[in-house]
């Protein structure tokens, strides 16, 4: 029996939050299956029916967790079995039970929000200067939400980075929906648009919080409140550990990243229109994050396939960019170690070996490709149906985004998250953020190239030891059988690395927020 009409009131509520109450009570699984079956999630959230189950479940998982007292394993386990019995034996009774529990959970959440507001620090403020590109800032801001919660502080809307390579003048409200950000997190922390006027001139504690720190570190930092009302955080990225944090903190990070940091309405609206246009052209499409741009090649020191003049230009750029600490880089060692982006030519060979036909529509999520058509033609000769945002959108639509790298990157982000297949040529901040978001939305297919392993294959092709064909395809497909976004646990640090250096080698939390923010069964997690 469908429950569409019974749950029609969801149209007038925050669907994600209301779903979360139901999903928590039913141990997440049963209600999500019903929602997917009845198409409610698909229709109201504008997502595929195939993703409705997991998206509902994961949204509920993180949304309801702010009220931690309600998370009783025994209660949820009992309710799960109870719902199972009802769904088989008394479907009409089940509808009534679902409605009762939805009402109860709604009221309980209101109680949680009311009682938590008293604990928020109304006289302590955290100001933040975000650093890096769009996705480095997004993950950093999400961490700062959790830090403000731990330190019982009011978070002032963060300043965006205007000094990085892109020199983007965008402010927070240009890129993100500021009102939604404040409102969606008000049950967790207090957020204000600006520091109160009477505190603008007071002395501030200026801190570079230690990277990958745990809750204990930030609890210790609360001693600063005895001398200061305002703490200024100079850098926001990687300020929290990837692992070994309390469950409520990890889920708060997910709420901030996947729900609260929604892009501004102009970006969201245009992004959705571009996705619709892509779908109308050919239905399914690959989103390729082709990180073959001047800044990335210079930063990584990767010169394979470039002319001597191009290599020298990148070297000079690296020398003159003060905040890039490493100046002398061995390009060959970088490539052999798998630390270089795939070239356009290598991407073409890779996709062909995976079995994608030349007619496949491929959206190129990137800035200006270094070397222009000289290098890009090595991909377009194999896959002529390359699509750029400039060909999807009109000049009028893109006019307001010109010279704002963060805003155009947000458009690429939306298109990548919504793609049928996502392929990053390099594991940078955007690639990791998109992969994590796609996992959260239902482990959507993300093919992560084994760049270190592929270097050997490309070398054999160059030397004639291997030719393109069935043997190459078999090698590449075997190598990537378990690198396509299937559910798995987050990788820990590399063996043999000790001290704080080990944190740098861990898989980032936002690249794979399992198990804290993703529903799943242990039987599905054999792939590592």
TrEMBL record:
Q: Which GO terms describe its molecular function?
A: glycosyltransferase activity
Pathway given in the UniProt record = Glycan metabolism
Keyword S-adenosyl-L-methionine annotated:
no
**CDD domains from the UniProt entry:** O-FucT_plant
Predominant cellular place of this UniProt entry's protein: membrane
Pfam family membership, one: O-FucT
Q: Tell me where the transmembrane regions lie.
A: 21-40, 82-107
Q: Where in the cell is it found?
A: Membrane
Question: What membrane topology is given?
Answer: Single-pass type II membrane protein
Cellular component terms (Gene Ontology): cytoplasm; membrane; nucleus
Does Cytoplasm appear among the keywords? no
One of the GO BP terms on file: fucose metabolic process
Out of the domains of life, which is the source? Eukaryota
Cite the Gene3D superfamilies for this sequence: 3.40.50.11350
Alphabetical keyword list = Carbohydrate metabolism, Fucose metabolism, Glycoprotein, Glycosyltransferase, Membrane, Signal-anchor, Transferase, Transmembrane, Transmembrane helix
Q: Which family does the similarity line name?
A: Belongs to the glycosyltransferase GT106 family.
Q: What is this protein called?
A: O-fucosyltransferase family protein
């Amino acid at each position: 029996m469908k429950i569409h009409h019974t749950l029609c009131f969801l149209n007038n509520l925050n669907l994600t939050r209301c779903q979360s109450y139901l999903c928590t009570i039913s141990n997440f699984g049963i209600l999500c299956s019903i929602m997917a079956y009845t198409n409610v999630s698909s229709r109201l959230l504008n997502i595929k029916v195939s993703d409705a189950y997991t998206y509902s479940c994961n949204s509920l998982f993180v949304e309801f967790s702010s009220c931690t007292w309600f998370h009783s394993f025994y209660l949820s386990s009992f309710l799960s079995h109870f719902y199972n019995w009802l769904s088989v034996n008394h479907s009409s009774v089940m509808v009534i039970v679902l409605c009762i529990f939805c009402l109860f959970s709604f009221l309980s959440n209101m109680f949680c929000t009311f009682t938590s507001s008293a604990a928020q620090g109304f006289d302590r403020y955290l100001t933040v200067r975000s650093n890096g590109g769009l996705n480095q800032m997004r993950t950093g801001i999400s961490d700062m939400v959790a830090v403000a919660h731990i330190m019982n502080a009011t978070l002032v809307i963060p300043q965006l980075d205007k000094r990085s390579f892109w020199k983007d003048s965008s402010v927070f409200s240009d890129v993100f929906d500021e009102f939604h950000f404040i409102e969606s997190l008000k049950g967790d922390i207090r957020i204000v648009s600006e520091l109160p006027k009477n505190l603008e001139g007071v002395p501030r504690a200026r801190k570079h919080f230690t990277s990958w720190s745990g809750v204990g570190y930030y609890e210790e930092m609360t001693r600063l409140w005895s001398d200061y009302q305002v703490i200024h955080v100079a850098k926001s990225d990687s300020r929290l550990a990837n692992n070994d944090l309390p469950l409520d903190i990890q889920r708060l990070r997910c709420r901030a990243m996947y729900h609260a940091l929604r892009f501004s309405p102009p970006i969201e609206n245009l992004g959705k229109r571009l996705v619709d246009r892509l779908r109308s052209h050919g239905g399914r499409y690959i989103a390729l994050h082709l990180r073959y741009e001047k800044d990335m090649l210079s930063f990584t020191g990767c010169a394979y396939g470039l002319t001597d003049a191009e290599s020298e230009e990148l070297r000079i750029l690296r020398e003159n960019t003060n905040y890039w600490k490493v100046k002398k880089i061995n390009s060959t060692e970088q490539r052999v170690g798998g630390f270089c982006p795939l070239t356009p030519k290598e991407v073409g060979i890779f996709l062909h070996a995976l079995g994608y036909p030349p007619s496949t529509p491929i959206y190129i999520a990137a800035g200006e490709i270094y070397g222009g058509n000289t290098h890009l033609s090595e991909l377009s000769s194999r896959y002529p149906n390359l699509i750029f945002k400039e060909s999807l959108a009109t000049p009028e639509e893109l006019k307001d985004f010109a010279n704002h790298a963060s805003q155009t990157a947000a458009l690429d982000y939306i298109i990548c998250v919504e793609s049928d297949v996502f392929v990053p040529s390099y594991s940078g901040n955007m690639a990791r953020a998109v992969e994590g978001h796609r996992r959260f939305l239902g482990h959507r297919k993300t093919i992560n190239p084994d760049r270190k392993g592929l270097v050997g294959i490309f070398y054999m092709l160059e030397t004639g030891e291997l030719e393109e064909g069935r043997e190459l395809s078999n090698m590449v497909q075997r190598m990537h059988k378990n690198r396509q976004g299937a559910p798995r646990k987050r990788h820990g640090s590399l063996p043999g690395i000790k001290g704080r250096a080990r944190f740098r080698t861990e898989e980032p939390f936002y690249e794979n927020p399992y198990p804290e923010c993703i529903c799943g069964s242990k039987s599905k997690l054999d792939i590592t």
